[in-house]
Amino acid sequence: MPDVDQADLQGNILCGYGNSFAHVLHAFLRVDDAAAGRGLIGELAGEVTTAVPWAEKPLETLNVATSHCGLRALGVRGDVLDRFPEEFRAGMAAHADVLGDVDDSAPERWQDTLRPGGLHLLVTMAARTDPARDAAAKRLRERLPPGVAVAHEEPAGVLLEIRHDEVVREHFGFADGLSQPTIDDPRAGPRDQEGRGTPTKDDAWDDIAPGEFVLGYPDEDGLVASDPPDPLRRNGSFMVVRKLHQAVGPFESYLRETASALDLSEEYLAAKMVGRWRSGAPLSLSPDRDDPELTPTGERKGELNAFRYGSDGDGSRCPLGAHIRRANPRDALGWHGVLTKRHRVIRRGMPYGPAYDGREADRGLMFVCYQASIARQFEFIQSLWLNDGDPFGLGSDRDPLANGVPSRKMTIQGRRPRFLASLSSFVTTRGGDYFFAPGIEAMRALGAGEVS
Questions:
Q1: pLDDT at site 206
Q2: How far, in Å, are 198, 406, 441 from residue 381 at the CA level?
Q3: With contact defined as beta carbons under 8 Å apart, do 346 and 211 qualify?
Q4: CA atoms of 83 and 78, how far apart (whole Å)
Q5: Cβ atoms of residues 85 and 373 within 8 Å
Q6: What is the pLDDT of residue 341?
Q7: What are the pLDDT digits (tens) for 129-162?
Q8: SS3 content of the chain, % helix, strand, coil (to 5)
């Protein structure tokens, strides 16, 4: 397996920046002048944070991606544009029916500034402090040439101590970012607290080939993607960005009312819906009570992802329709998990908005994931695992948490099964698009007009 070229790969794809870079800004840019846009891309190519391990941790990072309409706005030739995958060419809004983005999540109800068409470039800045992030954003705005403008800015960041502990959580209160694929490359592990790329096992799986996430390398079938053509293909990765609003108040009310009706505790019900306790402890290892040792700060934190579902075929420990079991079935679909490995994504999202204080507000998740194939990975997970119960023998049941369409029901398996009926939509899509994060040399080629 060839080593990934860290110097040509953008950072935060295979090598995560870690939670110390807790202050993020997603700056979506519109390009009205192709030459100006290419000039900006060329300048940023020398400043983008790569995957090379840091000798010293920086104060902030910078990464760049472009949508398909952004490539067109940069003047990329039609023959090159046509060789990108169909789903990337079409854009996220055009695949709303595949993703379940209907009703309140339908594209026509997205934020005006987050609708595809005007989101050409995405510059993501992550910093260790709010002032550093704001200063980086200010420098970006000041350097934008005429013909390139800010279409939308969305701040995001790690929510610390939502539940009075040191665990990083999302707005529903669950420990987040616990399960990521382990890459079959000795230099492609997540960065440690000092910013070094360190290989760490995230669970009991075999490593996953880097070509599942980065173009130009063999995937799990030993194949190397042929499109888009070089110089854009090598070390590029497709990026899904979705602003997902979380209705925290209704979720907490549902837990309170339903748990009381079923004679369960609210925390037990929440854990059964998600597949983990809010602390992060997996139901597969601790199905009946939370276990503080099985948390990111507990003595058994190394076991957080060291489990499979094959021995829990009836869902008595972790319900068959629980969120994390749907999103990553591990070996639940047979073949020792080999099939699941072809449908993994690397998640790099961050919460946005204020922590829940009893009042509704614009808060949720800026969902970000990387993959080599949006159709085979992200869209497959969203449409066939989250929005469809058939693969798990659950009929029309949908994911109980992360979908914009209400689920008819969810079953909590056990000696005394419990049924959750008329689940509301607790997550609503507010906008986003499909992007492509090119390698550094590809950015230089774009800047020089070599594909125009």
A1: 65
A2: 28, 17, 31
A3: no
A4: 9
A5: yes
A6: 87
A7: 999 999 999 999 999 999 999 999 999 998 864 5
A8: 30, 20, 55
Model confidence at 194, pLDDT cuts 50, 70, 90, reads very low
Angle at 259 between CA 256 and CA 265, to 5 degrees: 95
Q: Which amino acid is at 192?
A: D
Q: What angle do CA 348, 349, 350 make, to 5 degrees?
A: 130
> What are the start-end ranges of the E strands in 6-86?
23-31, 60-66
Q: Phi and psi of 305, rounded to 5°?
A: -125, 10
Matching residue, tokens 């130009």: 216
In terms of Cα–Cα distance, which of 439, 369, 438, 372 is closest to 213? 372
Check: CB of residue 179 under 8 Å from CB of residue 303. Answer: no
Coil, helix or strand at residue 179: coil
SS (H, E, C) 292-347: HHHCCCCCCHHHCCCCCCHHHCCCCCCCCCCHHHHHCCCCCCCHHHCCHHHHCCEE
What is the chain's length? 452
Choose the weakest-confidence range: 140-149, 190-199, 244-253, 373-382.
190-199
Query: What single-letter DSSP state applies at residue 130?
Result: H
Compute CA 248 distance to the chain's CA centroid, rounded to the nearest angstrom: 20
- Please identify which residue in the block is written with the tokens 């999202």: 349
Q: Which two tokens stand for residue 434?
A: 């499909």
- How far from the centroid of its chain's Cα atoms is residue 60's Cα? 20
DSSP-assigned letter for residue 141: H
C-alpha to C-alpha distance for 341 and 343, rounded to whole angstroms: 5
What SS3 state is found at 34? Answer: helix
> What predicted TM-score, i.e. pTM, was given to this entire model?
0.94
Q: Residue 335, Cβ neighbours under 10 Å: how many?
A: 9
- Residue 393, SS3 per DSSP: coil
Residue 196 has a pLDDT of 37
172's CB contacts (< 8 A; 6+ apart) are 246, 248, 251, 270, 274, 401, 426
Judge contact between 401 and 323, C-beta under 8 A: yes
Instruction: Report the chain's C-alpha Rg in angstroms.
Output: 21
Six token digits for residue 374: 């949006």
Q: How far apart are alpha carbons 34 and 210 in whole angstroms?
A: 33
More confident residue, 65 or 169: 65
